[in-house]
């Protein structure tokens, strides 16, 4: 097993694969959460974001596919486990749940990019960078809708 310094701690390929599988669980959950929130959110002020949530759902599915492909490439076994899905009767609260999920994803992906690079898995790092760009767009869409 190869260990290399990531600047924060030594990370192994096995650990990277394990955490990418954790990220994959959250991508599945995000897609389902966005589909449900898209369908149930109400209020004229949320007309624009309602459409956008359906776009997000599709993009989270694409992220899941990209992560699963990277996990497979690295020698892992892509998970079928789904993380916790959050919802509410309150439309604003649903958007806050979505925003929290995006911010958590952004934190995790920044870390994964550093880890992948420390293991010289540059293509994996590049794939995650592209995912990160979309997550930041999702974050901004939600902040706009929440007037933040
Ligand atoms: Fe995502
Ligand atoms: Fe996202």
UniProtKB/TrEMBL annotation:
Any one GO BP annotation for this protein: intracellular iron ion homeostasis
MF annotations from Gene Ontology: ferric iron binding; ferroxidase activity; heme binding
Record-annotated Ferritin-like diiron domain positions: 10-148
Entry-linked Gene3D superfamilies: 1.20.1260.10
Keyword hit for NAD: no
Keyword Protein biosynthesis: no
InterPro entries: Bacterioferritin, Ferritin-like, Ferritin-like_diiron, Ferritin-like_SF, Ferritin_DPS_dom
SUPFAM superfamilies noted in UniProt: Ferritin-like (SSF47240)
Entry's Gene Ontology cellular component terms: cytosol
Source organism, top-level taxon: Archaea
Alphabetical UniProt keywords: Heme, Iron, Iron storage, Metal-binding
Pfam families assigned: Ferritin
Name listed for the protein in its UniProt record: Ferritin
Organism of origin: candidate division MSBL1 archaeon SCGC-AAA382A03
């Amino acid at each position: 097993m190869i260990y290399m310094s990531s600047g924060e701690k030594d990370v192994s390929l096995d650990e990277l694969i394990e955490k990418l599988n954790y990220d994959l669980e959250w991508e599945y959950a995000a897609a389902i959460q966005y589909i449900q929130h898209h369908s149930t959110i109400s209020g004229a002020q949320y007309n624009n974001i309602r459409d956008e949530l359906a776009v997000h759902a599709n993009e989270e599915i694409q992220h899941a596919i990209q992560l699963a492909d990277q996990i497979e490439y690295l020698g892992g076994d892509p998970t079928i486990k789904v993380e916790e899905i959050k919802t509410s009767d309150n439309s604003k609260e649903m958007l806050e749940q979505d925003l929290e999920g995006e911010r958590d994803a952004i934190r995790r992906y920044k870390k994964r990019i550093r880890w992948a690079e420390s293991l010289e898995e540059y293509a994996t790092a590049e794939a995650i960078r592209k995912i990160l760009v979309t997550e930041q767009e999702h974050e901004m869409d939600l902040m706009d809708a929440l007037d933040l």
